[in-house]
Design goal:
With 372 residues, this protein is an all-alpha fold. The chain is built from 15 helices and no strands. The chain has helices spanning 18-35, 44-49, 56-65, 71-75, 88-103, 107-115, 117-136, 140-143, 156-184, 192-204, 227-254, 267-292, 303-325, 332-349, 356-371. The chain is elongated and about 65 Å long.
Length: 372
Amino acid sequence: MQSINVVNIDPNEAVQTTDGSMTEARRQLEVCNACRYCESFCSVFPAVNRERTFSEATITQLANLCHNCRGCYYACQYTAPHEFGINIPKVLAEVRQNSWQDNAMPAFMARAFHRSGAALAVAVVIGFALLLWLINQLPQSMNANLGEGFYNQLSHNAMIAIFIPAFLLPVLAIAISVRRYWRSVGGTQLRLCHIKAALASVAKMRNLAGGSGEGCNFEDEDRFSNARRWYHQATMIGFLLCFAATSAGTLMHYLFDMQAPYTLFSLPKMLGVSGGVLLSIGTLGLGLLKLQADRDLADRRVWGGEMGFIILLFLVSTSGLALYVLAASPWLPELLALHLGSVLALFVLMPFSKMVHGFYRLAALLREQQLQ
């Protein structure tokens, strides 16, 4: 059996910098590599046991492979008050956060959002909503309100002019960020088998199922649950359905000259309403779980930013559903401004919010497939 040697670093005095987090992560991973009790828990520990030394690239890859389910912490015999002070979920969360921030464009925006994301998200939503509401108050000749339904409040051309750049530029920023990450962890050319296996893991949220398949104990040390896995799936599927609804509406408008508003049983409405319901349920559930969970097992610096991202998604989905239900009410201009302001805020803040974790985690799963 391997002996366990550990550098004498007080885990309660961990430095909140990239280098400090890396040093602490390396120390703890060396202990885990010697112990190997958690080998069957998730994808992280087989990857840990494959290594003899831990470079910064390897630690960054492991951090983005971690789903912060916390099962390893509650099973570990070396957590505080043991002198080893092992807290893998926390230290990998810090490294993971640093990797997102360091690769973001610009990095200072990512740091600002994750430091005070909830307040920033609400402020940006209110600001955009107010701006869009004021645009709607312009004289008809200036606003060109020539359409029906929502387009009578804000013209189709105005929506295109505002939202296309607001979506494409952040997506480009995320693509550059993920490319930087991929290069930093030594990613190489992908094969179809790598992509299929990684996507299957994402679809099933396999790493949130726990080693036994009973789920993780994210919100409660003594209770295994699949709640976090289910809420993640609802959020992911709901978001994809809403994106599909927007795509379907775009194709119908430009290819088939079928302009909004659409009926309830049209493809955009069916996809959008079902996606909105799932997204609202998923984000509400994730928010409640995060309120219950132990903040000392994550990166405390960014709790507000993570909640800010959840709030943004919840506002987008819930305001969209409210807009559909109350489309004939006198509150339509205000509801439309709130919904479009939420969507615009989500787009603009995407490269700096926790939205990037999905892309980074997929990249980490792809890289893991290459390394197996």
